[in-house]
Amino acid sequence: MKIATFNINGIKARLPRLLEWLEETRPSVACLQEIKTQDEGFPADAFEKIGYHAIWHGQKSFNGVAILADGVKPVETQRGLPGDEDDDQARYLEADIAGVRVASIYLPNGNPQPGPKFDYKLSWMERLRRHAKSLWDAEIPTALVGDYNVIPEDKDVWSPKAMASDALMQPASRDAYGRMLADGWVDAIDTLNPRGGIWTFWDYQAGAWQRDHGFRIDHLLLSPELADRMVGAGVDKEYRGREKSSDHTPVWVELRDRN
């Protein structure tokens, strides 16, 4: 079972690239972020034509998440992150697929910091941790994947100095991410690439892609049941270099079948 995450940065603008990636790599599950469309504008038919069934949680012009599954219909288990009834941003969607609970996550960016956007980011991360604990306590094999908007360590960015003031690598952001790891969630990419130097995002500005000035903010966190089944994880870097690409690239983990 191959589970992937891809911040598509506008599903309508990137649909040809997205379909291309799906057909060329064929993940079992693809979690999307920043679809940037209302629910009625989601192009479900395009995915159905190539064998993928979808659920989605949209929002006009901003945010939005989706889950695609190859050949099976995702069974939705949670829409929106629990813990704040006033939060109407489309950033969390969760479903059961082939015995695995999968969540597509678009964590708040938090810039500018300090300020209300950064406060919202930290509050959202604490809510995520609480909800993740409920899945843990229920012993559900779970993958929490998506754009976390957190650079976990200095090894995960081309230049720590260049990003020092950004919300993505503030101590509070890193601490919140680290607390989830301390709870027992396994960072798939970091586990197999402990020396770092793996990027998932390159800005459109200042020739970041051409100069390889990137950083790692798209993560796959696995419960122990799934971490024990991990046989590989990686980044589909080449897709960032294609015409009209997202500024993120797909990230994936492969799990062996249950015994």
Automatic annotation (TrEMBL):
Residues annotated for Mg(2+) binding in this entry: N7, E34, D147, N149, D247, H248
CC cofactor: Mg(2+); Mn(2+)
Keyword Metal-binding set for record: yes
Limits of the Endonuclease/exonuclease/phosphatase domain: 4-248
InterPro entries found in the cross-reference section: AP_endonuc_1, Endo/exonu/phosph_ase_sf, Endo/exonuclease/phosphatase, ExoIII-like
Known EC number: 3.1.11.2
Gene3D superfamilies (UniProt xref): Endonuclease/exonuclease/phosphatase
GO terms of biological process kind: DNA repair
Residues flagged as site, Interaction with DNA substrate: H248
Gene Ontology MF terms: double-stranded DNA 3'-5' DNA exonuclease activity; metal ion binding
Matching NCBIfam families: exoDNase_III (TIGR00195), xth (TIGR00633)
Protein name from the UniProt record: Exodeoxyribonuclease III
Organism encoding this protein: Parapontixanthobacter aurantiacus
Lineage start: Bacteria, Pseudomonadati, Pseudomonadota, Alphaproteobacteria, Sphingomonadales
